[in-house]
């Protein structure tokens, strides 16, 4: 799945009790958020993919915490497992190609298995 700027997406995310230092948060359910990706980027230090999303609506557990017409940031690891692309921009194929070219020039950590950098490591 290639998520790019302009894609309208819907995904389910896990919801937990609020974090309290020294305690484990409990899973309390899921909420589904629908919105459009307005920006994306990579954090080189952590190799995380981030998306800024303009929210259209949220449903489910604690959905009221996500305001319609607000912007939220989510890591790719949260979006990809339970995400559906509802619509793509007119230049989607071009954006996917640009994204692939950016990946070619990014950190080898994420793509080590493609470039034979994993020699000596077990799969």
Provide a quick synopsis of the model.
This protein is of the alpha+beta class. About 15% of the residues lie in helices and about 40% in strands. The protein is built from 3 helices and 5 strands; from the N terminus they run ββββαβαα.
Topology:
Elements: E1 8-16, E2 27-43, E3 48-60, E4 71-75, H1 76-79, E5 83-87, H2 92-104, H3 108-111
Antiparallel strand pairs: 1-2, 1-5, 2-3, 3-4
Give the SSE string: EEEEHEHH
Oligomer: single chain
Tell me how many strands there are.
Answer: 5
Low-confidence stretches: 107-123
Structural class: alpha+beta
Rounded Rg? 17 Å
Q: Count the DSSP helices.
A: 3
Kindly, what is the distance between the CA atoms of the first and last residues, rounded to a whole number of angstroms?
A: 23 Å
Question: Mean of residue pLDDT?
Answer: 85
Strand content: 35-45%
Largest sheet: 5 strands, antiparallel
Task: Write a structural description.
- This protein has 123 residues and is of the alpha+beta class.
- Helices cover 17% and strands 40% of the residues.
- It has 3 helices and 5 strands, in the order E-E-E-E-H-E-H-H.
- The two termini are 23 Å apart.
Descriptors:
alpha+beta, five-stranded antiparallel sheet, disordered C terminus, 5 strands, 3 helices, 40% strand, 123 residues
